[in-house]
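Researcher: Next sequence.
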Amino acid sequence: MAQKMMPISSRWFQGAIVTYLIGFTVLGILAYLVYRDQPPLPARVVAGDKTVLTRDDIMSGMNVFQRNGLMEYGSIYGHGGYLGPDFTAEYLHKTSEFLAKRYQGAPLSGVSARDRVAAELHENTYNESEDRLRWSVPRAEAHEMMVQYYQSFFHSTQSRGGAQANWIAERDDIRRLTAFFAWTAWTATANRQELLLHQQLAAGAAGWELCYRRCRHLERNFDHWPFGRHGPGLLFLRALRLARLE
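Model: Next structure:
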C-alpha cells in the first residue's frame, strides 16, 4: 500500500523564503557597515619627530599574535581565551597608570592627572590626509614601557599561569606584537566620527518601534496580512516581537 504523503501548505515555504531574504539582507547590511566603519590603520604613529610604530608593525604583530596561538591564552577586545589577560585592556590600563604618575609630577591648573589622561586617550589625533597618528611624548614613553613589559613576559624562562616559557623568542616579534596591542587599545578608546553610527542606530531603533506599534495595530485584523493568519506577514511580525527588547 503506497504511503500517503502529508500535505504541506505552500504558505510555510513562502514564509521560509521571506525569512531567509530578511535574514541575509540584514547580514549583508551588517557586513557592509563593518567594512565601511572599520578603524583606520595609520601608516605611522609619531611622537615629536620620532616614529613610534608603523602599519607594518601592527600587521606583523597581528600575525605574531595568531601564529603563536595567543588567542587561546588571552583575548583582544574581550574575544579569546581566559587563561591570560585581555591584552587590549591590559595595555590600556598599564599605560594609563604610567601617564597618571607622569602627569602628577607636572600638573595643570584645575585638571587632575587622571582627567588629563582620560582626555588624552579619548582625543582622536589621527590625521586622515597624512595617514598619521600623533601621540604625546609621554605616551610614546608609556608604549616603550609596555614593550619592555611584554619582553619580560613572553621571553621569560619560566612558565606561569598557562603562559609558556620562552613563548616568543624574537624580541622584534614582541615589539611588533606590542604595536598590535597598542593599536587595539587606541581603537577602543579614541573618539571617532563613526560614532555617529550610534545616533543612526538610535534613529533606526525609533523606526523599528514605530513599525512594531503599527504591526501590533494590524495584528488585530488578520485580513490585512498577506495569506491570512499563517502568512509570512504575520510570521515577520512575530519575529519582530521576539527580536524587540521588551
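Model: Strands lie at 44-47, 50-54, 75-76, 79-80, 126-127, 132-135. The chain has eight helices and six strands.
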